[in-house]
């Protein structure tokens, strides 16, 4: 089985506090794994390090075989990882199906037309550089040797500055800067393309059909046109999971998706997740605080944490019978003791 996720010797320190202590574990493709432990044991911190929201102190994280230890969250997401948070933040003045229509990337262009647009952008960049050099050459020739040297030095200085920025700040910072420039110029072109090319409506219809399909998977198609402000906490959790599914994730990290949810609905959420894993083959790592609940919900394996460290890993039956796990949760040996009279 190939690994969807590999965490090795992950350590996260906040000043003098060590929140995660050299944690290592793997998640195979198509696995449904629970990450459990008492409050404050570092579960959400691990999620933040995996998804790029926190820069770990030491250790490595691999997503589908690629080291993402120093990657930005958007770069990690492009590899197929999606995560949710403990608190759902839905767009409350939009309907359920509208909430699901927002997350998919590259909405203004179909895959076939996106590449030509980016090539056109690259060509425009080349023409802009050539035009700039032409202006420099014109003024150099027309203003004598002094201005020729001045413009040459200025051009070389600009080029040196770009190279130095990439070398000093690093590839990710350089790419981030170019991404910001691209995000400023490309979206207007994409919008115009979508408005004046009716063919883009077909892609919109496909996304809408997919949104209804995801709602069917989660067994809430009847809520499609409800405002999310009208939903209960459990229903909001389902919609949040639905939004995460709209990005075609291959690795899904869920942070306590049933926290505060009533028993029957929490059971329904877990059953739907198990079905999604079985039907699609995606990998799911789920944080849950309630050990008794997750032990009964058909996960493949469970990783148990205590005070920033992994206490044990195993099947639900192995975890259920482990004395150290019982002590971690009950704070005692787990057996009645005789009281002296």
Automatic annotation (TrEMBL):
- State which residue ranges cross the membrane: 120-141, 147-168
Q: Which molecular-function annotations from GO does this UniProt entry contain?
A: ATP binding; ATP hydrolysis activity
Q: Which Gene3D superfamilies match?
A: P-loop containing nucleotide triphosphate hydrolases
Q: Does the keyword Lipid metabolism apply?
A: no
List the InterPro entries. AAA+_ATPase, ABC_AA/LPS_Transport, ABC_transporter-like_ATP-bd, ABC_transporter-like_CS, BCA_ABC_TP_C, P-loop_NTPase
Q: Which GO terms describe its cellular component?
A: plasma membrane
Q: Which SMART domains match?
A: AAA
Q: Where is the ABC transporter domain?
A: 5-332
Keywords of this entry: ATP-binding, Membrane, Nucleotide-binding, Transmembrane, Transmembrane helix, Transport
- What is the protein's name according to its record? ABC transporter domain-containing protein
> Per the UniProt entry, what species is this protein from, by scientific name?
Candidatus Thalassarchaeum betae
């Amino acid at each position: 089985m190939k690994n969807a996720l590999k965490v090795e010797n992950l350590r996260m320190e906040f000043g003098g506090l060590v929140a995660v202590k050299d944690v290592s574990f793997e998640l195979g493709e198509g696995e449904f794994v629970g990450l459990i432990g008492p409050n404050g044991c570092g579960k959400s911190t691990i999620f933040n390090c995996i998804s790029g929201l926190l820069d770990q102190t030491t250790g490595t994280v691999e997503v589908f075989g690629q080291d993402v230890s120093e990657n930005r969250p958007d770069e990690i997401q492009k590899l197929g990882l999606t995560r949710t948070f403990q608190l759902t933040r839905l767009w409350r003045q939009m309907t359920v199906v509208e909430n699901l229509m927002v997350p998919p990337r590259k909405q203004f262009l179909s895959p076939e037309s996106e590449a030509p647009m980016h090539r056109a952008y690259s060509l425009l960049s080349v023409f802009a550089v050539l035009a700039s050099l032409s202006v420099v050459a014109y003024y150099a020739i027309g203003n004598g040797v002094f201005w020729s040297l001045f413009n040459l030095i200025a051009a070389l200085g600009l080029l040196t500055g770009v190279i130095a920025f990439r070398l000093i700040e690093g590839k990710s910072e350089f790419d981030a800067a170019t991404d910001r420039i691209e995000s400023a110029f490309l979206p207007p072109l994409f919008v115009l393309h979508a408005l004046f090319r009716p063919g883009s409506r077909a892609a919109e219809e496909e996304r809408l059909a997919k949104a209804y399909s995801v709602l069917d998977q989660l067994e809430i198609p009847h809520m499609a046109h409800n405002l999310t402000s009208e939903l209960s906490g459990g229903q909001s959790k389902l919609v949040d999971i639905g939004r995460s599914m709209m990005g075609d994730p291959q690795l899904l990290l869920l942070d306590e998706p049933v926290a505060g949810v009533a028993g029957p609905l929490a059971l329904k959420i877990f059953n739907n997740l198990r079905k999604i894993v079985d039907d699609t083959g995606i990998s799911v790592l789920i944080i849950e605080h309630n050990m008794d609940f997750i032990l009964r919900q058909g996960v493949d394996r469970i990783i148990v944490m205590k005070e920033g460290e992994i206490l044990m890993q195993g099947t639900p039956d192995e975890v259920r019978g482990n004395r150290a796990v019982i002590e971690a949760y009950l704070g005692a040996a787990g057996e009645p003791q005789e009281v002296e009279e």
